[in-house]
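Homework help board

Subject: predicted structure for assignment chain

Our instructor gave us this sequence and asked us to write out the predicted structure in token form, then describe one feature. I got the tokens but I'm not sure how to describe them. Can anyone check?
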Amino acid sequence: VLAGGQGERLSILSEERAKPAVPFAGKYRMIDFSLSNCVNSGINNVAILTQYRPRSLNEHIGIGKPWDLDRREGGVRLLQPFLGRRDSDWYRGTADAVYQNLSYVEEQGVDQVLILSGDHIYKMDYRDMLRFHEQKGADLTVAVTEVPLSEASRFGILTVDSDGRAVGFQEKPQEPQGTLISMGVYLFNREVLLNRLEEDAEDAASAHDFGRSILPMMVGRDRVFTYPFSHYWRDVGTVRSYWEANMDLLARPPAFNLYDEWTIFTKSEERAPAILGGKAQVVNSLVSHGCIIDGRVEHSILSPGVRVAEGATVKDSIVMTDSVIGRDAIIDYCIIDKGVIVEEGCHLGCGDDCTPNFQEPSRLNSGLTVVGKAAHIAARVKVGRNCKVCP
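My token output:
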């Protein structure tokens, strides 16, 4: 599981943590979905490759107990860049991250290697993909899905023949010619993976990345097939897509269902049940355990331990763990990180001026205001849209 990304497009949300450790859906972290897919698919030998600010992620994963990965045989391993006699350095790309850990792959004695991103939201039974891979006699199988043409430039675009074999690939083209995109889920035959990574490592001009280097190298040369996936999948790589994926949980029926038999496991704190006070109003919202609500919460997601005081309003927002929204405060179309204190009478997300943020115009441009971890906003302060509030 590739979990070392910096996630710059998430702005202040990923400044102090790796992107897969960013909270999602109240009580979860992004990486919980890939890990839960593994264990629900019967995969219990998992390595997580970390690099950028890994402390939060390491603390969350621990020895893997919530996912039943605290095992003597197999289980979960956290692999970080290291200094050694050879082949060791900061990871230069996703392919290089796996290349630097090839000794670990070789020690496992497996025939296939599944490579995943740790920051995508979806449910997939990888056993179905493995059966497809074996039926096709593939060297590499890439999970693919359709996206709107307006979003296709964010992804790698594949062209396939009538049998589903990849015959062309473009990584994040400015003018995409198709909408069939790579989900960042790769199933390799082990020997093919080892050989291609060795070749890539010797190429000084390579980006050492699966999307920009390995796939283009293999398409047309090896048996690369595409595995179609038609269910919910989201790359939450931007502030807006992160907010949208969270809000998808509130649709009826939900676009992404957390309440079926495919359990999403996580490290869960022991907290008291949520309590709604006598004047509380909660409408179409997800409220986690430990919350104390005395104000109004509408179309929002609250993580554990959030407090909303009397007269306060939280609307179309995400509020993370242990944040406090003071009396008569208004939170409108915002993302509030952990441990934030918003004092009484504040208004975050006020006005209709949606001019892009001048420091981060490509990240904060949809009207969302983002408040960083442990920020303290004084009483009666007003903050407009597309703002970033630092701690």
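Reply (TA_rk): Your tokens look well-formed. For the description, you could write something like this. The chain has a mean pLDDT of 93. That's the kind of observation they're looking for.
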